[in-house]
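Thread: 4-nitrophenyl phosphate complex, take 2
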Amino acid sequence: MKYRILFVCLGNICRSPSAEAVLRHQASQRGLSVDVDSAGTGNWHVGQAPDSRAIAAAAARGIDMHSLRARQVSVADFNHSTHMFAMDQSNLADLMAMRPEGGIMPALFLGPATHTPPGEVPDPYYGGAQGFEHMLDLIEAASRGFLQTLN
Ligand code: 4NP
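Output below.
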């Protein structure tokens, strides 16, 4: 079975593209073939590359995000994805409000499915570089835990 994993945050320029890039990177290191994508609940940044601070923080960890472009999540994503992960409670509530009947059930990325304590990946958009490091620490740990569940 081919896994199709979608990460969702608010703008799709900080957290969810970082999670997309980290999971893709970790999966390829393990020789696992997975489809990974990301989207935002909002449409303000559609078509844009990730935030330059996110690109820089990922690059320092050997992860390339340059080619990613923001898009908005759609109802079709609920029928296409095998896993849909929200980065915070607000993202999760927005997804639940648009979830079609029979569509995939979204879950918080931090939580039992990723062997991490339940919680949120805080939005680093209005903070400094430290917020992006913390974001990547959380995402890398959750991504490792999630990949373990696929084996
Ligand atoms: P993200 O961060 O949801 O992690 O991509 C944000 C990016 C942009 C905005 C908010 C959050 N914004 O309001 O433009």
